[in-house]
Amino acid sequence: MLLEGIFPAVTTPFYPDGRLYTRKLEHNIERYSRTPVAGLVVLGSTGEAVMLSDEETRTVLRVASESAATKKVLVAGVARESLIETLGLAEFAADQQYDAVLVRTPHYYGAQMGHAEMLTYYRTLADRSPLPVVLYSIPKFTHYELPVAVIAELAQHPNIIGLKDSSGNVERIAEIVAATRNKAWREFAVTPTFTAFTNRMMTAMIPAPENFVSAEALGGEAAIAVAPPSPKVKMMRKKEVGFQLLCGSAHTLLDSLATGASGGVLALAACAPQACQEIYIAWKDNDLRLAKEKQQRVVEASTVVAGKLGIPGIKHVCDLNGYYGGRPRIPLLPLDAERQAEVARVMADLRN
Question: For residues 240 and 2, what is the distance between their CA atoms, to the nearest angstrom?
């Protein structure tokens, strides 16, 4: 699966009493689908994935998939501390027509998480997962950083296609790009304009079963059954892609792209997707001056809202910008009046 461009790390809406608010999730996903972002990451850290039960996790994954446009790449956060539970969610995501799974490093037993343990966990998962695996290193929350040497080894697995690195360290991203550059090249299906060809796009091209006419329905021994036409594979093209690296910090997006990242999974894009997309487009168009201007425009907002205030900040800005944010789940608390004023100031130029 091609992972290029901007991927909002979408939030999970809740009612004030903490129950899932699926109607607002549908609203948000449908609105993201009308933006030019490449795809969506559901149930990453910004989605409060660790706050959800397994049943709620499956509900969110199902509703998001049903609400998303077919052209948007869908990545499901499925990480659990054990391999068997992670694999179970990966299989569910495949049933819901996701395109890849994002798998955070197991970290609870941190002292025992050596190279051998990480290699075994991810390789075994990738061997059995029905969807491509995207590694996820976020030391801010896990207090564990996936070593570059381990990433380089895992990059050779045919079903491990990339990494989301949320270290915020551009030098580390450059090191990972260098370590994985020649490890593995894969051929992915793309559209005629070389954008990602998603699982839901493929399904949409297959005629519904009710259009199939059997020999029995036609009647008579001489009747001929006409099978449904095969998907229009001629509409697809192929693109050779190496190990794909997605940065996790909006304030380092341009520098990350310049060092070899293919895009970003960004918390700020959950509330200001257009502002993040404009950085990527300017960079893609080789307009470095404009790209720097667009990057500078989001630096303070990313640092304050996503970095300092986290999920409560992101959800508050979602409310300001036409997406449903609402309250985070306790023990996280909504922003107080002072912090709301700070957010309004740094987001003044990034309102939709």
Answer: 9
